[in-house]
Write a structure and sequence with these properties.
239 residues, alpha+beta, 23% helix
Amino acid sequence: MMTRFTFLFYMVLLANITFAQEKTPQYSKAYFVYERKSNYHIDEKGVYADTLLLKAEFPDLKYSRVKHPIDSIRIVGHVPLDKLSKKDKDELASSIYHTTELIEGVHDFKKNITRLKIRRDDANAREVIKKHLGERYHKFKHKETIDYNKQKIWLKFPSISYTKKFDTELKTIKFGSDTRLWGYYRENRKTLLLDNFVLLKEGLDNKIVPDVIFSNNEFGVEKIATIYQTIRLKSVTFE
């Protein structure tokens, strides 16, 4: 015979189980899309970029400080197109080409594996590179597989494939005070030691990330911003 105490115990247990199921629903796969965009802005008047970026990449170029043509709150460096050499234009085209991509990912929760398809086929980047920099633009794609169990990353390009280990790729976020949702991670780039901004999305599974993986992210990535590029989460669906 069930006592009043036993009845209450089972009711509390059932409520806890139900709450846990609602809080952490079980999915088999997550499908997500990130968009990577170059932080250079180029139009018929010239190149606009963070002054630190211009100093690092084009130390011999003289720039003026102006309002950003799209975001008037920001003050950036500006260099007219006619002040760029052929080499400068080649380097700019390469930077924009390599930092403008669409990243489509699928994370398999059972296998604990993420598969990414990374494509370069952006209409705006194509126009900037061809019209303003006089360079060719080629479509390109490659694949990456992130195996969290084996702690390895496989990269497959059209002409070569290779493997990287987690211990050489993991980034560690230094979080802001009293938060686990945003912070910075450090990265060496040429002669620069950069602090790159990371914004996490509360409640989003921590395996939902672009082609940058972290050692201490409790949640998935909503945004990564460096002086070179900005990566934003565009969509997430579950199966």
